[in-house]
Design a protein that fits this description.
alpha/beta, 17 helices, two-stranded parallel sheet, 333 residues, elongated, 7 strands, 10% strand
Length: 333
């Protein structure tokens, strides 16, 4: 991200802004920026008297302002980091007076996770004028797959698109969790080798053959033998393969397939852009479209919604996961 690079560059130049308001749904970049400021604005000798961490659960806006107005001791700046600042959401606007006239030698960092400031309010405008507002947005699955590739490339590693998709399948879009697993992989996989689904299965523990990604692919190809094997595996390992995740994955896939049918331009570039999928996987939609006409896709989506309700106890007569999976296979085949 260009703005992250900009923040790093101004820190490295010794020209930090007086306020960094870090907000948004993705905590990974909030933590990264906060940690970089914590580690690089002050020297180790300066930190003892000039760096403080407060927590939104325990601190008040008044305490934060009082601490921020202090002057540094034998240093060019003092750093004040407020973690979990989202717990101050009810009183956060009381920070306006300070934001309008911040102490120039203080670097105030507010980690406002999972929430955003209202752009119409005075605080947003004041911080925007005197400091930096950084919004860390949640990435879509296809963006996370690309993020994995870029992150590993920066470390000198390569990963196959299928392996990236497998990580997202099991870890979701939480960049922190994914990054932890990438660190593990980089310790055990040589840089000369591409990270494959087999490496992920061996070193992280996800099955490369029995997962929702492979089920979706098997159903798209109408490979019912393979789909049945995966369903049986899910039935025997319900805790590792919750039905709600399976139904959600398939609903997304068939909804995208419905969109695919409605496209005039089926070029990989256009399909990738409209559906929000990695170009590597566009062929799966092309194959599935030949196997499932638009009318049939609409019927399947309706059936998946009914199964989702049954999984939540609606007209289900206490159906277990194994029975729900069997019915799913019948409805989609």
């Amino acid at each position: 991200m260009d703005r992250i690079k900009g923040i790093v560059e101004e820190i490295n130049r010794g020209e930090p802004k007086p306020i960094y308001f870090l907000m948004g749904e993705e905590p990974y970049y909030i933590d990264k920026i906060s940690d970089y400021i914590s580690e690089n604005v002050l020297s180790e000798e300066e930190k003892g008297f000039n760096q403080m961490v407060l927590y939104g659960k325990d601190a008040s806006i008044e305490e934060i302002i009082a601490s921020a107005k202090r002057f540094p001791m034998m240093a060019n700046h003092q750093v004040l980091i407020v973690k979990e600042a989202q717990h101050l959401s009810r009183t956060i606007e009381n920070l306006v007076s300070y934001a309008e006239n911040p102490q120039p030698l203080t670097v105030l960092v507010l980690c406002y996770k999972y929430k955003k400031l209202d752009k119409r309010k005075k605080l947003y405008k004041a911080v925007q004028k005197s400091g930096e507002i950084f919004e860390s947005k949640k990435l879509y699955e296809n963006q996370v797959i690309d993020w994995i590739r870029r992150t590993l490339s920066g470390k000198g590693y390569k990963i196959s698109p299928k392996a990236s998709a497998l990580l997202v399948e099991f870890l979701g879009t939480d960049l922190g969790r994914i990054n932890n697993e990438l660190d593990k992989l980089s310790l055990v996989v040589p840089q000369s080798e591409e990270i494959t689904p087999a490496a992920i299965e061996k070193h992280i523990g996800f099955s490369k053959d029995f997962n929702n990604f492979e089920l979706k692919k098997a159903l798209g190809e109408k490979d019912m033998t393979k789909a049945t094997r995966i369903i049986d595996y899910f039935s025997n390992n319900p805790k590792d393969n919750p039905f709600v995740v399976t139904i959600g994955t398939l609903n997304t896939f068939f909804t995208q397939l419905l969109q695919y049918h409605g496209l005039k331009d089926h070029s990989p570039k256009n399909v990738s852009s409209v559906l929000g999928v990695n170009p590597y996987f566009v062929s799966e939609y092309s194959i599935a479209a030949r196997n499932y006409p638009m009318k049939r896709v609409s019927q399947i989506i309706s059936s998946l919604r009914e199964l989702d309700l049954k999984s939540k106890g609606v007209d289900a007569n206490n159906m277990g996961q194994a029975d729900l999976l069997k019915e799913l296979l019948v409805k989609v085949s």
